[in-house]
Structures are given as structure tokens and as C-alpha cells.
Amino acid sequence: MAESQVVTRFAPSPTGYLHIGGGRTALFNWLFARGRGGKFLLRIEDTDRERSTPEATAAILQGLTWLGLDWDGDVVSQFERVPRHAEVAHEMLTRGTAYKCFSTTAEIEAFREAEKARGVSYPVFLSPWRDADPATFPDLPYVIRMKAPRTGETLIEDKVQGTVTIKNETLDDMIVLRSDGTPTYMLAVVVDDHDMGVTHVIRGDDHLNNAARQQMVYDAMGWAVPVRAHIPLIHGPDGKKLSKRHGATGVHDYQAMGYPAAGMRNYLTRLGWAHGDAEIFTSEEAMRIFDLEGIGRSPARLDFKKLENVCGHHIAMTPDAALLHELQGYLAAAGQPALTDPQQDLLSRALYCVKDRAKTFPELLEKAHFALTSRPIAPDEAAAKALDSVSRGILKSLTPRLQNASWTKEALEPILNDVAAENGIGFGKLAQPLRAALAGRSATPSVFDMMLVIGQDETIARLKEASA
Question: Closest by alpha carbon to 295, among 183, 161, 184?
């Protein structure tokens, strides 16, 4: 691997589904790497064995796969790298940048209580073992702590947040290896990022407080610090942190609600990032233009109307075969039966007249209802009102004229216009019962499109049934 190659990573904890905010973080990492010919790596931070589950890992992988975010190489398990983390902790001992601490929980708590009694709000534990003579070490369990800088400041140069200054007096000698030999999160993250060759750490700004403490590990080991970009979290429409009260928070929910993956990628890319006036773009275009400089510092607000608008553009842009394939995936995610082969065939013929008007897959299927339904057609309430006795009589007179008609719009248009004129009504008045007969709906594509899609025999059969 060339030293200049960009390497990003997404490192979720498998304690639940893939949150929409995590999906956007993964997307930013993916776009940044792919647009620069780099690598996008996936690491599952599963060292918390009590909360990590295989089901959550599977849900995360499924969410990323649906979003279309492919990763390079094998998925890395942080838990499987525990021996390596411990090795680094002991190397820091050898370097003198970390030390063995034998303080008990009771002693640490007593220290903090004494500090609070002195008026210190957030006491930083000062271990008596930091500079102790190894000859005084007891034969007891110990943790390994970092030697945090006591004076001065730590500067975090961040591509989104700018220069962040941390006073070193607020940094404690954090534990990197517990007494049972397991690493802490702060150590494991840095070791994994270093060993995986990560050049850019792009993550939520809720990790910004960790950056100074993790920088201590880089400095202690003499490792280069990657470029960092801490991105603001996603808020709900009301400006508060996104939660279930705002609606769906999991990536899988959006698939089950019928949003196309390409539309979600487009919308999430623009959620907190801007590039001039660009609103609608393909993933290939996004890879070319995405940069860290365009990420704003303020939390982005989820806007469902804008999401639907973007998704509508992508449904219209998507080739029919790809749209049909994703539709089947939506039906499975929503727990609905798959389309039959005849339904797929009819839907593929109908897409030209419905895909430009749908913002979600449920909308698309509703507009294509005429092609997916079968006789007997059950009209909804509005459509049933259009099939009164007069309208049924008009449809009955129309049916014979269609028997030998050429099945093109040019041939059908004058026939329908003549029937409307003979009955003293405008074409719109004829179209209402036609929609009801052909689709069982009052809002449909044009009657000519429906007739052409379902064909001559089925059109006549539906008209005969409705006019009976």
C-alpha cells in the first residue's frame, strides 16, 4: 500500500441496529475513501462482551449493504485483537510512558471524595504509583495507566471543528489495560486504527472529548496521528437530538418504509455537508465532489419532506431492472409477499408511466396498482362513486368499439373522444369511470397508459366486469 493512500474506517459497536447517524458516518468515510482511490475498512468494536451480540453485528452489516456501502477486506473484530492491545500496553510500560497502578477502588474513591470536600468539582485521580520505585511494588493485581501530561495544553487539529484546545490538567492517567488483562476502549481504538493504517478518522463529534486522551496513546508510542474530522450529530426536525419520538432512527426502518438506497445516500450526503447548489447527484458524482471542508459545524436536522423529494428524483433516475430488484428487497424488508413473475412483467411494462410520480416504493406500488391487481377489481370508495348506472351504461357502449381497435394511443384516443361526445360529456367525465373500472382507484396514470400496459383483452374484460 502506498503511503499516500487514503484509508478510512467505520467502527460501530454491535449493541443494536445501525442508527441513521451511524449510517451517515459510514457514508462520509466511504465517499471520502472511494473518491480518492483509497480504502474503506470496517471494524466491529465488540470488546464489550455483555452487550455485543451476533444479531446486532448482522444488522449492522445488513444496513451497510442495503445502503450500498461496500468495504475492503475482511471485517475486523476488535475482540479478536485483545492480545495485540495488551502487547502495546506493556510496550508503553517498557517505554516509561505508562505505569503499573495498584490503587484499589476504595482508595480511588476516597481520593475523589477528599478532593470534592476541598471544592474540586471534577477531581482528576493522581495515582501514588506514577513514579514509584518498582522495588516497592506489591504482589497484587494492577492496572496499566498512561502518564498524562500534567501541564500545558493538548491541541486537536480537526478538519470540521478547527483547533480544539484541551487543558492537560483536566486529563487523568487513564487506564489502558485492566487488571484482568483486557484493554480499555481508548487503547483498543488507537491500536486498531494504527495497525489498520487508518489515515483519516471521520466520526461523530460525541467522540471529540476522546480525541485528546487517544492522542496520548499515539504520542506514547511515537505513532503518527491521523487526520481527524468530528462531524455534528443528526437532530430531529425540532432541533433536538434524534430519537424514536421523531420517527425511524434505524437504517433498516428506512428500507422497510420504502425509501430507495440511492436516494438515502444522496440525502444523507447532503445532511450536514454542502457543495455549492448541488442537491441531486449520483454516488459517483458524490465521490468526486465530497470533501471534509464542506461539512458544517452545526447539527443537521432530519427533514422527511426533503428526503422524499430526493428519493423521488432517484426513483425516476433508476433503470427499470434495478428498480424492480430493489422493490423486491423492499417488500421482503416490509414483510410483504414478493411480486409474482406475471406481476413483475406487468410492473416492468408500467414503470414508464408511474416511476416519475412516486417518492417511495409504497407510492410506486399504489400508482401501479392497476397493473398488479387482478379481476375481480374491487374499487375503493371514491372509485365506486364513479361507477353509477349512467357511467356503467357508457362503458358498456364503449366495449364493442375496442374489440377490433389497433392498440395504440393514436388509435384509442379518437374512439374514447367519440364516446364522450356522443354522451354529451367531456373526456374528463369519461375518464373517471374508466379509472374505476381499470384500476379500482380514482387517482391513476392516464387511462391510455393503463390500457396499453394491461393490454386489449384485459382492458375489455375489466370494462365488461365493471359495466355488468
Answer: 161
What stretches of 37-179 show up as alpha helix (H) in DSSP? Answer: 54-67, 82-95, 105-117
Q: Are residues 176 and 34 in the same domain?
A: no
Return phi, psi of residue 101, to 5°.
Answer: -120, 125
Q: What is the pLDDT of residue 246?
A: 67
Q: Is residue 9 part of a domain?
A: yes
Given the residues 244, 385, 396, 409, select the one marked as catalytic.
Answer: 244
At residue 214, the pLDDT reads 96
Residues contacting residue 286 through CB under 8 Å, at least 6 positions apart: 31, 35, 265, 266, 269
Three-state helix/strand/coil letters over 156-198: EEECCCEEEEEEHHHCCCCEEECCCCCECHHHHHHHHHHHCCC
Within a domain: residue 322? no
CA neighbor of 213 nearest in space, from 159, 172, 165, 178: 172
Show the domain range for 455: 381-467
Place of cell 375481480: 376
Between CA 11 and CA 384 the distance in angstroms is 55
> What is each CA distance from 203 to 30, 142, 456, in whole angstroms?
12, 32, 57
**Which residues are within 8 A (CB) of 114 and not within 5 positions of it... i.e. 6 or more apart?**
none
Q: Are residues 257 and 227 in the same domain?
A: no
Task: Write out the three cell numbers for 139.
Answer: 504482589
Binding-site members are 244
| The pLDDT of residue 16 | 84
The pLDDT score that the predictor gives to residue 66 is 95
Low-confidence ranges of the chain (pLDDT < 50): 1-2
CATH number for the domain spanning 410: value is 1.10.10.350
State the DSSP H helix or E strand holding residue 20, giving kind and residue range, or none if neither.
helix 20-34
359 carries an active-site annotation: no
pLDDT in tens, 318-354: 999 999 999 999 999 999 999 999 999 999 999 999 9
Query: Looking at residue 2, what is its pLDDT?
Result: 46
| Backbone φ and ψ of 377, nearest 5° | -80, 125
Last residue of one domain, picked from the residues 317, 337, 371: 317
| pLDDT reported for residue 120 | 81
Residues 100 and 38 in one domain: no
| pLDDT score recorded for residue 9 | 98
Q: Is residue 438 within 8 Å of 398, Cβ to Cβ?
A: no
Question: Smallest Cα–Cα separation from 289: which of 268, 309, 269, 260?
Answer: 269
Shared domain check, 236 and 226: no
Q: Which of 176, 209, 231 is the last residue of a domain?
A: 231
Binding site membership for ATP: which residues? 244
Answer whether residue 366 is part of any domain: no
Would residue 335 be called left, alpha or beta, if left means φ above 0 and alpha means ψ between -120 and 50 degrees?
left
